Amino acid sequence: MPTALITGITGQDGAYLSQLLLSKGYRVVGLLRRSASADVIGERLRWLGIIDDVEMVDGNMTDLSSLIRIIDSVSPDEVYNLAAQSFVAASWQQPLLTGQVTGMGAANLLEAVRIAQPSARYYQASSSEMFGLIQEPVQSERTPFYPRSPYAVAKLYAHWMTVNYRESFGLHTSSGILFNHESPLRGIEFVTRKVTDGVARIKLGLAKTLSLGNLEATRDWGHARDYVRAMWLMLQQEIPDDYVIATGRTTSIRQLCSIAFSYVGLDYEEYITTSKNFFRPAEVEVLLGDASKAQEKLGWTATTSLEDMIGEMVDADLTRHRKRLG
Ligand code: NDP
Ligand code: GDR
């Protein structure tokens, strides 16, 4: 039975990746950072019904010694580095922490792998945010990067360290340049989930309006369940490499609102307000990915339409709020 170590196991992708690997017969071990609010830990794993099927080990991405000890004791065949301060907007408020966790955290983990288990295969969660101020209308593995936030700068460092450890030490390290992917397990602060939660609250009479920022930015949105499959496929290749993972369709926040509100028979224009609080100091206006390399080499394609995914998310948020209402 192969063993996988997942950092960021309590996040959206960590939960879906755990589910996928368990279904393939893996032993799944997750890195858990200690929290005083232990009762809320593992909410997503619980939602998927797999909380008792994964093992947890205590550690932190900023603590190299904990990572070395964990790699040494777990002896993973595959390491998935999903841990990050992943909210772009927060990275302007906490740029140094973002650098330490999202950037240096990856370097710490690469070091731990190099020292304690160099035969392990390593996956780095890179991001389309690295393209930032886009240099080509459609972004592929060959598109130059231009990060636009402290988060994206940190991710770029982690990305190049992943490439560098492959080239310098011959480690089996791969980097997935994933475009936005969402699900009912998405954090509430990200725009898709904020909108689907807002739609549910408005529909149930719990709120009257929803306040957002820039409605004209566009994103290439896919489903997290599809995207974790791409992570696993990358580590099954004999030769490590970097891949863009995207749907090839870009949609504005405004269109997203239209899709989500009309799913429950409402007109978004009657409910959306905008606030400068949700605009960013530097915006990534457009992202659109070309995943043809992943399709060709990994046999990967996105299988879920934006409309189906938003419907699934609105339904899940309606269920959550109805449960709370009793
Ligand atoms: P989430 O924000 O949902 O999850 C982040 C995870 O990182 C959580 O488990 C969190 O733990 C953990 N974490 C944060 N800080 C530390 C730390 N100091 N030590 C250990 N663990 C820590 O992110 P997603 O699941 O959405 O994304 C997974 C990865 O993929 C991230 O690296 C993200 O930047 C990247 N990515 C995501 C995309 C997306 O669209 N979702 C697209 C491209 C890249 P806790 O629960 O304790 O907070
Ligand atoms: P992003 O996701 O920054 O692309 O990063 P987010 O959903 O936060 O923003 C997407 C776009 O929506 C605009 N927007 C708003 N965003 C938020 N959060 N809240 C609002 O009220 C709002 N109004 C408009 C934003 O300005 C932006 O243009 C996500 C994260 O998962 C990263 O970790 C990951 O690397 C990238 O996706 C790919």
Keyword list:
single chain, 326 residues, alpha/beta, Rossmann fold, UDP-galactose 4-epimerase, domain 1, 2 domains, seven-stranded parallel beta sheet, two-stranded parallel ribbon, binds NADPH dihydro-nicotinamide-adenine-dinucleotide phosphate, binds guanosine-5'-diphosphate-rhamnose, NAD(P)-bd_dom_sf
Brief account:
With 326 residues, the protein is of the alpha/beta class.
Describe this structure in words.
With 326 residues, the chain is α/β, with parallel strands linked by helices. It has two domains: 3-181 and 223-245, NAD(P)-binding Rossmann-like Domain (Rossmann fold, 3-Layer(aba) Sandwich); 186-219 and 250-287 and 304-325, UDP-galactose 4-epimerase, domain 1 (Alpha-Beta Complex), CATH 3.90.25.10. 42% of the residues lie in helices and 16% in strands. The strands form four sheets. Strands 3-2-1-4-5-6-11 form a seven-stranded parallel β-sheet, with helices on both faces. It has a two-stranded parallel sheet with strand order 7-10. Strands 8-13 form a two-stranded parallel sheet. Strand 2 (27-32), helix 2 (43-47) and strand 3 form a beta-alpha-beta unit. The radius of gyration is 19 Å and the shape is globular. The chain starts with a strand and ends with a helix. 45% of the residues are buried. It binds NADPH dihydro-nicotinamide-adenine-dinucleotide phosphate and guanosine-5'-diphosphate-rhamnose (GDR). Residues 86, 88-89, 127-129, 179-180, 189-191, 194, 212-214, 217, 219, 253, 278, 280, 283-284 line the site of guanosine-5'-diphosphate-rhamnose (GDR). Its cofactor is NADP(+). Pfam families: GDP_Man_Dehyd (PF16363). NADP(+) binds at residue 122. Catalyzes the conversion of GDP-D-mannose to GDP-4-dehydro-6-deoxy-D-mannose. This is GDP-mannose 4,6-dehydratase.
